[in-house]
């Protein structure tokens, strides 16, 4: 396996976990995910960052990523890198974040473990999407609102991928489900008013510093 990883690195260039600069608890890691919705998010936000998680360490000291995917959980950093397109990643750090404060952030994120993924990007206490987990962790841990809140309708939703994603998911959207919307157009109007925090919006927070990138 080590030989295979070395061969892949020689051929493609993106870093493996052991090639990264010193990591700190509370770092934010961004990637272009390999999920089916990644293209829609990329085109809607104009950013290659379609997934984000929070860096932490397990009991043995190995780096893990706290993330909202199928369920909110910790993923070994090496596995997280392998899952991204091209194994590219970017690491951002909150200026002045101390380890005690970082622990408050990661503890707040871990309290969300087990919650399912939110495919509608709808503000909720019961299901989460990736950048929403980041927002909650820093808000609950430090009282810090990280990343701007956009209106879904302000994103670029005109691409085929974005339109297909909305069309596929609108019938079960919490804003439209159970007869709340009269029809698809009424549902779309409701959806466009939904607040959302995107990976791009988090990365563009002026308090964050880019410390590493393979993009």
How is this structure best summarized?
With 215 residues, the chain is of the alpha+beta class.
CATH topology name, in short, is endopeptidase fold (from Nostoc punctiforme)
Question: What's the arrangement of strands in the largest beta sheet?
Answer: 4-3-2-1-5-8
CATH architecture: Alpha-Beta Complex
By CATH, the superfamily comes out as: endopeptidase domain like (from Nostoc punctiforme)
Strand content: 15-25%
Distance N terminus to C terminus? 25 Å
User: Which stretches are low in confidence, meaning pLDDT under 50 for 5 or more residues running?
Assistant: 1-13
What count of domains describes the coordinates? 1
Global Rg = 18 Å
Q: Tell me the number of strands.
A: 8
User: How much helicity do the residues have?
Assistant: 25-40%
- Overall residue-averaged pLDDT value: 88
CATH class: Alpha Beta
Q: What structural category arises from helix and sheet content? A: alpha+beta
Largest sheet: 6 strands, antiparallel
What order do the helices and strands follow?
HEHEEEHEHHEHHEHE
Number of alpha- plus pi-helical segments: 8
């Amino acid at each position: 396996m080590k030989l295979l990883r070395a061969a892949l690195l020689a051929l493609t260039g993106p870093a493996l976990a052991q090639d990264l600069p010193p990591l700190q608890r509370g770092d934010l890691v961004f990637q272009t995910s390999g999920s089916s919705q990644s293209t829609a998010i990329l085109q809607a936000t104009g950013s290659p960052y379609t997934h984000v998680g929070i860096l932490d360490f397990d009991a043995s000291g190995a780096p893990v990523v706290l993330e909202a995917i199928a369920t909110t959980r910790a993923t070994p950093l090496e596995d997280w890198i392998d899952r991204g397109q091209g194994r590219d990643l970017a690491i951002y750090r909150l200026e002045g974040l101390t380890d005690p404060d970082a622990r408050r952030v990661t503890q707040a994120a871990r309290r969300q473990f087990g919650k399912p993924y939110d495919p509608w990007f709808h503000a909720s206490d019961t299901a989460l999407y990736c950048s929403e987990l980041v927002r909650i962790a820093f808000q609950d841990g430090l009282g810090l609102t990280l990343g701007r809140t956009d209106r879904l309708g302000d994103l670029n939703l005109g691409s085929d991928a974005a339109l297909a994603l909305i069309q596929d998911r609108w019938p079960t959207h919490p804003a439209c489900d159970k007869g709340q919307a009269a029809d698809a157009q009424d549902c779309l109007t409701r959806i466009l008013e939904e607040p959302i925090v995107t990976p791009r919006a988090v990365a563009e927070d002026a308090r964050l510093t880019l410390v590493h990138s393979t993009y």
